[in-house]
Structure to design on (147 residues):
């Protein structure tokens, strides 16, 4: 029976990680502007392009609102259907993704397995984020079955 619980915890961990990373990415990426688009908007005299950029900016605001409400609903659902510990794990998985996401936005490079190993700066924050990501799995098992 414990093997089944461990397997369920591992699967649930990856589901939580997928949802946490994508919801946070949707929210955070919408908070930053693209300098190229701002430059085009300032330089162009074409009203059509300015209108299209305005539509894009309004859509970004709506996406941010939807992402924020999605995060609130996601945290509430984890608390409602499980417990505060599972909600805390979901929040931790979001927080450990934040430095990587900000680095991607700042440099314009998307992280993958190779890029994260070689190009991401090695500092204490990265080691803490890696530790918390790995520690979330046993903590999730505890909160699912022993809390």
């Amino acid at each position: 029976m414990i093997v089944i619980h461990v397997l369920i915890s591992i699967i649930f961990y990856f589901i939580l990680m997928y949802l946490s990373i994508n919801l946070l990415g949707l929210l955070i990426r919408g908070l930053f502007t693209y300098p190229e688009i701002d430059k085009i908007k300032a330089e162009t005299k074409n009203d059509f392009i300015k209108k299209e950029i305005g539509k894009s900016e309004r859509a970004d605001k709506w996406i941010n609102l939807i992402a924020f409400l999605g995060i609130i609903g996601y945290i509430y659902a984890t608390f409602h259907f499980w417990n505060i510990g599972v909600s805390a794990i979901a929040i931790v998985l979001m927080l450990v993704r934040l430095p990587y996401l900000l680095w991607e936005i700042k440099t314009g490079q998307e992280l993958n397995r190779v890029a994260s190993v070689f190009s991401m700066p090695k500092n204490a924050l990265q080691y803490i984020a890696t530790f918390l990501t790995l520690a979330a799995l046993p903590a999730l098992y505890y909160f699912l079955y022993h809390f």
The helical segments are 2-31, 35-43, 47-81, 84-107, 113-118, 124-145. The chain is about 85% helix and 0% strand. The longest helix spans residues 47-81.
